[in-house]
Amino acid sequence: MVLRIGDLYVVNAYILPVNARSMRKYHLWQDLTPWATFKNLVHELITTGVQFTIHGDLNARVGPYAPNLPWHSPCIADDIACNARGTELLDLCQRYGLFLVNGSIDIPGTHSGMTYFHRRNPDFHGEQSTVDYTIASYSARRRVQCMDILPRDFISNHEAVQTVLRVQRTMAASALPVQMHLQRSDLQAPRETEFDEWMQEMLADAMDEDDLASFTYGTSFPSISRTKQVYVDGSCLRQASTHAASGAGIFWGPNNPANKGVRVPGRL
């Protein structure tokens, strides 16, 4: 997912693990592997010249290593393992000049720790790793104000990663980058799936028409308002003179407490 927030493009990415069962069946739902699609996205962002950051679970482990770039700061990491995709991620960062925020000594915050824990035994060191990252393009690296890997809440087996970015909220029309074409035109999600139809049939058997409409679209309230008639008028004394005075009247009906006569403030 790619969002444009002000003058910054923010990418949220999830790449399946290499050994995931669904990873081996990617060809059933797209032509490119998820990792190849991610690399193509990075290439297009770089080619377009926009400033961008990447956030998400890449299922890559880079260990304590940083991209081999002269301007990149050293990194500190609790996860010292580097897997094959981690090596590919480092190569990708080096090729396109990307800044790896995790563990960077130049970025404030606590972000050198593990981001994944085994749900059943989170203290088992063999099931801990760093697979969630924040990455910035070279031109956007100064926008990263701080990053923190938040404490475990034991609800998910991934830790929340909080990154503070500096964004310019407005841009001149002439400064907007060329529109990218990142959406595949051949992918069209059906408006209603078989599951949707099955749910509608099941609900229709359990509810009458009014209850079903209320459940599907929310409660509706009949209009209880009636047409109301109100009279307003204004006048001005001594027009076009330095002593002009004006006022206005609001009339809802005889003896109505909402009736008002007011003087228009200010001087002409």
From TrEMBL:
InterPro entries: Endo/exonu/phosph_ase_sf. SUPFAM superfamilies: DNase I-like. This is Endonuclease/exonuclease/phosphatase domain-containing protein. It comes from Mycena pura. The lineage of its organism: Eukaryota, Fungi, Dikarya, Basidiomycota, Agaricomycotina.
